[in-house]
Design goal:
mainly alpha; Four Helix Bundle (Hemerythrin (Met), subunit A); 4 helices; 71% helix; elongated
Length: 119
C-alpha cells in the first residue's frame, strides 16, 4: 500500500479512536448520573433502568469498534495492515476506505457472518 494512502487511513483511524473514546466516556458519565437521582419513584426507576441498559449496549458496541480500531493501528505499525487475518489476501481498497478497522476481506467477512469462519 502506498505510504500516502496508509498515512491517510492511519489519521482516519486515530480520529475514529478519539471520537469513540469520547462517546464511551460520555455514556459512562450518563450512566453514573442516572444512578445519582435517589428521589425517583418506581416508574422513574424503571425508565432509568431501561436508559442505563440502552446506554450499556450502545457503549459495548462502541468499545468493540474501539478495540478493532486499536488492532488496525497495531497492524499498521507491524506492517500487515490491509491483509485479511484469515486468508492472508489483500483487503480491497474501497473496503479499507469505508471501514479502515476491518480485519477481513469481503469473502471472509461473509463466511464469518454466516458462521462458517471462526474468529
Amino acid at each position: 500500500m502506498a505510504a500516502r494512502k496508509l498515512d491517510r487511513l492511519k489519521k482516519k483511524l486515530k480520529n475514529k479512536k478519539e471520537e469513540l473514546f469520547q462517546m464511551v466516556s460520555k455514556t459512562e458519565q450518563y450512566g453514573r448520573e442516572a444512578d445519582e437521582d435517589a428521589t425517583q419513584d418506581i416508574a422513574d426507576k424503571a425508565a432509568s433502568s431501561y436508559t442505563k441498559e440502552f446506554l450499556f449496549s450502545h457503549s459495548s458496541n462502541e468499545r468493540f469498534i474501539l478495540q478493532l480500531v486499536d488492532e488496525a493501528l497495531d497492524r499498521i505499525n507491524e506492517g500487515c495492515f490491509g491483509i485479511c487475518i484469515s486468508c492472508k489476501s489483500s483487503i480491497q481498497a474501497k473496503r479499507l476506505e469505508a471501514v479502515p478497522w476491518t480485519r477481513h476481506c469481503i469473502s471472509c467477512q461473509e463466511m464469518l457472518e454466516e458462521g462458517l469462519l471462526e474468529e
